Amino acid sequence: MERLDLRQTLQEEPVDVCGFLHVHEDLVKKVQAAMPEEEELYSLADFFKVFSDSTRIRILYVLLCSETCVCDIAQLLNMTQPAISHQLRILKQMNLVRTRRDGRTVFYSLADDHIASILSQGMEHILE
């Protein structure tokens, strides 16, 4: 599948606009009532920003397959342990991963089934 460059796509796609100004008040009121608070929308945007890094996505896919320690993730992704630890810290702060200690080893896993669903749906969307 060809990789899309968002900037190029945005430059090539014309934007359709209304030919005249007419606000549909009933629609505007309905949407305003359903819109989350600004703070919630900012939190949602921050949540999705975490998915904008390919290293974090790769880590999440590893964890989708199995609970894993930093050493194994580093080996699988051909990266250093400090680099993996840095990304795991971000994922943990955003409640996308959780930890389990077994002796001196810390195992990471996806925080819940929502994360697996988000990854699966995202992949399904780009493969359409």
Low-confidence stretches: none
The major beta sheet can be summarized as: 3 strands, antiparallel
Amount of beta strand: 5-15%
Order of strands across the main sheet: 1-3-2
Number of strands: 3
- The span between the termini is 10 Å
Q: What CATH architecture label of one domain applies? A: Orthogonal Bundle
Query: Oligomeric form of this entry?
Result: single chain
Described by the principal axes of the CA atoms, the overall outline is: elongated
Helix fraction, binned, reads 55-70%
CATH homologous superfamily of one domain? Answer: Winged helix-like DNA-binding domain superfamily/Winged helix DNA-binding domain
- CATH fold title of one domain: Arc Repressor Mutant, subunit A
Query: Cα-atom Rg, whole angstroms?
Result: 20 Å
Based on secondary structure, the structural category is mainly alpha
CATH class bucket of one domain: Mainly Alpha
Order of helices and strands: HHHHEHHEEH
Question: Which features would summarize this protein structure in a list?
Answer:
128 residues, mainly alpha, Arc Repressor Mutant, subunit A, 7 helices
Describe what you observe in this structure.
This protein has 128 residues and is mainly α. It has a domain at 67-128: Winged helix-like DNA-binding domain superfamily/Winged helix DNA-binding domain (Arc Repressor Mutant, subunit A), CATH 1.10.10.10. The chain contains 7 helices and 3 strands, in the order H-H-H-H-E-H-H-E-E-H. It has helices at residues 6-12, 25-34, 38-50, 54-65, 70-77, 81-93, 113-127; strands at 68-69, 97-102, 105-110. The chain has a 3-stranded antiparallel sheet. Strand 2 (97-102) and strand 3 form a beta hairpin. It is elongated, with a radius of gyration of 20 Å. The protein starts with 5 loop residues before the first helix and ends with a helix. The mean pLDDT is 90.
